[in-house]
Task: structure prediction
Amino acid sequence: MSMRQHIAIFTTASLPWLTGTAVNPLFRAAYLAKSGERDVTLVIPWLSLKDQELVYPNKITFDSPSEQESYVYRWLEERIDFRPKFGIKFYPGKFSKEMRSILPVGDLTKCIPDEEADIAVLEEPEHLNWYHHGRKWKNKFRRVIGIVHTNYLEYVRREKNGQLLAFFLKYANTWVTRIYCHKIIRLSAATQELPRSIVCNVHGVNPKFLKIGKEKLEQLQRGEVAFTKGAYYIGKMVWSKGYRELLNLLSKNQSKLTGLQVDLYGSGEDSDEVQREAEKLSLAVKVHPGRDHADPLFHDYKVFLNPSTTDVVCTTTAEALAMGKIVICANHPSNDFFKQFPNCHIYNNEDEFVKLTLDALSGQPEPLTDEQRHELSWEAATERFIDAAELNHANVSTQKSLPPKMAFLPASLRMSKLKKSVEDASAYLHQSVSGIEVVRRAFGAAPKSLKPDEQLRKELGIDIPPRKKRSITSVLPKRLLSKKNKTS
Result:
């Protein structure tokens, strides 16, 4: 292995699905590779056509991985001012309707050749490893970094029997991240505590939003009216993404917010219900289909309302701040990073929400400084990631195996050896359990996801193992074979 770092970024989603685990790892790969000092590979899921139709918006589908790869590069190149220098590989995946997520099929570690297996970045390490059955990540890669994106416990608590499900999920997340990751980066304290974890926001915003913010600042400096629209919210239109909280706040305070107009933008499973609830209000709350947040339609809004408490770090909040808007959001750990920005207004109760909203609509945003703008950028996010993941520490490596004779080792090394033995046993148990189809299905895995099926193999160009030819004697019962041998 050369001294040059090879970084493989594994994630749970891909464009054109505009979800956080599709967009943020893509930008991370681009900016880690920008200097040319590291070799970076982004590993994303490939879905067969029937699953693409369920997941990807606007009826976008791909006939081949190379076609989707071109789409991803093209989308990125339209949003950054440099040419991407990283590679893309695909792993087989299946979409779970029950979990509303893409789940890996087979052993993800096989996507990277052994000679390139240096540093693995697992975006959503718990998600990638719930059903992992294959080589242990720590055995293949020198260093494994997990980045926790999603507050799964909060989502699960809102389901039927949510408290019980959250109890088991909490320990499942702890188990798989402990045995498969050397270090965990939690984007905010809204996520659960995990072994060997730190809290650090290693996400930035699409450069387009910073450019929009600069243009708005120039308008204000020229004395022009930069914001001609009032309040809005954008996000996937499911109740758990803050729509329930927002409509409740508006409903309870209609008399205080007389004349307020709010536009909601999003697409999702709960769109029809959100529409019906919004129509019950006396306030002018309009529901619109989802759109790209960088669309010119949003440039003139002044106030972004985001009461969501299920996000870990809300991407749309960061984008709104970058565009120079005022953000009204809840006092919640997911918003801690944003408190440093003067245009982020935090409320603790309904009265504060009403007051901050009315003040924001009648006032003007404060201009961002160059330092504040940099904090929101992917350059700063990449610097934070390199520091948090300790990528510049030359001696960072996995625990070296210790001599088999422990009697003469110091107590600290004996304890280290013992912990490693326990971890290896725990990993072996997970491998055993995750290899049983009935158990996998019982815990939510996609059917027959231990190995990619013939269709996925064909689409990804994975070699199909030759079927063993069976002779007639191989299918005969042993009793008949013994008689056959005697007569011969």
